[in-house]
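User: For a teaching handout, I'd like to show students what a predicted protein-ligand complex looks like in token form. I'll give you the sequence and the SMILES for zinc ion. Please answer with just the structure.
Assistant: Understood, here is the input followed by the structure.
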Amino acid sequence: MIAVAKDLAGVRQAAIELLKEPMISAQIEKTRRQAEGAANKDRILEGLPLLHPMASGYYVRAAYGFWLDSSLDLVPASPGALTADDLELLRVVNQARDEFRRDHEQCPRCAHWLERGGVVCDHCGHQFQRGDQCQ
Ligand SMILES: [Zn+2]
């Protein structure tokens, strides 16, 4: 049995994957559409990335961390209300969010997240200009 709550590196990785999920889902859908009718369809589909390659507990813990973080934006916690594990989890999910934002940028037209340095939004087709890549 994996002690997910104590494996902060694993929770951090799961948090990053949760942030990437809309991008990966869009990529999977696009690849599936392109594979339709292809002679090597099965081979193409075998190469699709997995959305959640780690144990599900990591994603549950990371999702709880994001929920806790967003809840604290709405209702600040009173001193002592959060455990040391909660505080560590908040630190980990915020690190994950910072890393994600460092490596990705948001389309100014549709707000879809893309790998940093992209030229065209793969969601809406927006052509990036130099000034767009500041988020
Ligand atoms: Zn876009």
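For the handout, you might add this sentence: The pocket of zinc ion is lined by residues 107, 109-110, 112, 121, 123-124, 126 (CB under 6 Å).
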